[in-house]
Amino acid sequence: MDLSLFPFSHSPFPISLFPFTFPLLPIKDWPLRPHKKLEVWKNAMELAKSIYKVTELFPSSEQFGLAAQMRRAAVSIPSNLAEGAARSWKKEFLQFINIAQGSISELDTQIELAKELGFISQKDYDSFLLRLTVLSKQLYGLTGKIRSKNMKA
User: Which of 34, 48, 106, 136 has the largest count of CB atoms under 10 Å?
Assistant: First the structure.
């Protein structure tokens, strides 16, 4: 069979490893995942990057302690939004938003502890608390918007 007749017949994966093919589109033309359209997801990603940067300055004794916990909590926020946005059911998305809210509270506590231990400055502390407050408000707004939409229950 002449595969050149099929527009999507050229796969970057060997047929034996991946039995179906994808179009070879430039990455900029790929369809966006639903979470990438959410402003709250974008803000959560920026916060996670900031947490990674500030925890690099923590004492080496904390790299597997508080620093690692802060990183996991920070990454959990956009990750749960991404997973929830990909779900078909409104109830599932709301559950993942609730988990993201929990991660915000967890990170808030860890930032407080980092400040009390002298690992972050007052300026960073204030900035992180403001950003967490904004994220939390955005999540409450998103929850209200989802509940008001005529989506699958």
Answer: 48
Asked whether residue 11 is assigned to any structural domain, the reply reads: no
Domain contains 62: yes
Q: Assign residue 67 the CATH number of its domain.
A: 1.20.1440.60
Average pLDDT over residues 6-29: 51
C-beta separation of 78 from 103 below 8 A: no
Q: What is the per-residue pLDDT for 153?
A: 44
The number of folded domains in the chain is 1
What are 102-123's pLDDT values in tens digits?
Answer: 999 999 999 999 999 999 999 9
Domain extent for 144: 33-148
Is-contact 41 85, C-beta < 8 A?
yes
So what's the pLDDT on residue 5? 46
Which carries the bigger pLDDT value, residue 36 or residue 50? 50
> Distance between CA 133 and CA 144 in Å, rounded?
17
